[in-house]
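Z., the sequence and structure:
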Amino acid sequence: MAPPKVYKNFINGEWVESVSGRTFENANPADRNDLVGIFQKSNSQDVENAIAAAKDAFKSWRLVPPPKRGEIIYRAARLLVERKEEYSQLMTREMGKILIETRGDVQEAIDMTFYMAGEGRRLFGQTTTSELPNKFAMTARSPMGVCTLITPWNFPMAIPSWKTMPALICGNTVVMKPATDTPVSMLNLVRVLEEAGIPRGVVNYVTGGGGEVGDRLMMHDDVKAVSFTGSTEIGRKVSEACSHNFKHCCLEMGGKNCIIVMDDANLDLAVEGALWGGFGTTGQRCTAASRVACHKDVYKEFVDRFVERARALKVGNGLDPTVQMGPCINQAQLKTVEEYVEIGKNEGAKLLCGGTRLTSGDYDRGWFHAPTIFGDCHPKMRVSQEEIFGPVVSVIPFSNLEEAIEINNGVVYGLSSSIYTRNVNRAFEAMRDLDTGIVYVNAPTIGAETHLPFGGTKQTGNGHREAAVTALDFYSEWKTVYVDYSDRLQRAQIDA
């Protein structure tokens, strides 16, 4: 066998080894014998070098006209289109999710990159009237400086694109850190930006652990903004690290999302939605439908169909086009899933299917768990309240819409929610009362589009949104400009 490929950091326009001299291995979670590559185990000096390069590059990048920035980003999008299949195959190897999902991940990066390229000609401000004569007033966006981007492993190219492209189009420079489980997909995003002509130092990429690399990226005084996607526990630490000098901080964190199935729902459609929402990406999505609240009048029929479909899912290596669900990302995540299965049993939830690790045959080389459904769950059970991030769904019975909305809202998170109903009045009542940043009607809790805001309420986030034009508000500062051409002193409010 050929030796595994060694990948390097990207700092100041050069691919360089870590000054630490250390590396780590990245293996396929579906087959630990498949070594995807060897990556740099960076230290604080690597971070210092990357931030210094980004700070220096900001001086000139901020002055590049936004349409010209957009042309570079557009070229990067074209390269992603050309390499979509190559990058999808590699993502499945490093992350585990099935090929149709990794193709969707790369496509989302393509969509976001094209979208933000266009924003180079639409970084609109406002002009408005003044309350005083012979005075002009307007607003304009200004870039901030160095932004650090810390991303998760479940969408290893899509989520980095959400952060990188709006930051760049606004005129900022970036230092990017991928999750240690999925470093190659972000590297491929950096590579297309390099080939598209991004100037030296504008984009920097360092790999390594959250303690040595991530902490320094958050706390460095030359960093003006931090964007983080991950767990609420770590997000709280990011917020605290940013608070000491009031730097911008965007947090996208956990979710405990719910599908509501009403008694008038199209049950075939609802089962399909619950299956995709609960077990897509092996349940390893912040938007995963890890809860289903089902009306008592259709509960048995829905559960019977849902369990039958879940049992039939083919689990395996995502490179196999017949496989429908891949592995957990690593051993620790698999262990977490196993622990929550035991918690559910001990709480009195009824195990309807799954509940075990898969170990026979080829399963023994990866981190596989059977699709698992608990029935007759109480809304306050831990399996109904806490984010598991695995292929485990809790089904909760309810009697009316008011109770269903209470179940949906009765968790600390507020990312995504869904209702299946044919009653337009119920649909609009749910849209109004579901306390989440995203609401779906007759669709599962996953499937966000790049031209609409993404984010949630409560402990899911800190109020910012990713994607769409709303992302520009995080990566830029509003500047209000007054031009007085009266040739005399005018005092606002006093002379108005």
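The domain at 258-441 is CATH 3.40.309.10 (Aldehyde Dehydrogenase; Chain A, domain 2). The chain has a mean pLDDT of 97.

Let me know what you think.
H.
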